[in-house]
Amino acid sequence: GGAPEAGRGRAASEPAAMAAAGGFVRELERRGGPALRLEQRAAGGVGCVVWDAALVLAKFLETGACPLARRAVLELGAGTGAVGIMAATLGANVTVTDLEELQELLLVNIENNKHLVTGSVRAKVLKWGEDVTEFQPPPDYILMADCIYYEESLEPLLKTLKDLTGPDTCVLCCYEQRTMGKNPEIERRYFELLQADFELEKIPLDKHDEEYRSSDIHIVNIHRKQAVGSL
After folding, report:
1. In total, how many domains does the chain have?
2. Over the stretch 143-166, which tens digit does the pLDDT of each residue have?
């Protein structure tokens, strides 16, 4: 089920365009002006397309539920940068992060949309599980869209989240619930591990953007558990 709008983002829906051009531009409408223009790539794996969860999270940011102006925002596993760049158009100071091989695509998309940015946006390499000193102090927000799909990346991702979050950091994790293969088990394991250190609160579907929502795409608000007393 879900909105037809969200469905347009499915990577498989435009293979001809991808094959013809080696990539294509995806437009993401904005409430407050011209659409974001996001380049995608035909080759290069999962980071190179705008996934539905990224659309849903980007459009959720536009609802104003989380005040972003002048806030420090870090996106993990940014891919095309859709979510982080949207945050930057809403006044946030954003660092979009992903692996080395995705930096060029991130830079292209930052350049394509820089005239819409009212905060700031930069791209940096961040490999989950590695040192995050250069990303300190903790940001106000951490954004993640569809970052839970590799079993081997769960532990490094959780380490990075723990290392990056302060007591006031709000993590917004958006993911598409997948029923195939190992996906349900990986999701269950991820949230089980997460709950050791974090409080989780699901954002109700009626709080998502009216058009960009789908019953199988969830947004979870995640905060560090507050330490009780001191050791």
Report:
1. 1
2. 999 888 778 889 999 999 999 999
